[in-house]
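Pasting as-is:
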Amino acid sequence: MVDKAAGPLSEHQIDEFKHRLEIRLGELREEVKQELLNYDQEKYSDIAGRVHDAGDESVADLLADVNLAIIDHHINDIRDVERSLNRIRDRTYGVCVSCQEPIVAARLEAYPTASRCHQCQSRREQNQRGSSM
């Protein structure tokens, strides 16, 4: 278990996070592989070829879109994990990319790919919500 205290991470903590991230990366790659295999087995053209009316065709479109959305989500997660592993290599893991202060270990424990402290992430989300209105 990682120490919940604030402050820079110890080498031991970083090693634990690195191990968790490497395991997660392998899991995500396997999930993408399985989704692609499933998608290939249920090709959109096969689904669309079996439809009998516009409603069935809409369901086929939705299923194809859902499969692609799941794969897209996994790819984004892979990118987040790879960025975190790069920050470990660069020795910047656990440091907020916005304010350069340490990210609390409890936040990293819950969200190992976090690149911002809670305060900076909250500010960023509020700014994004405000700009989308």
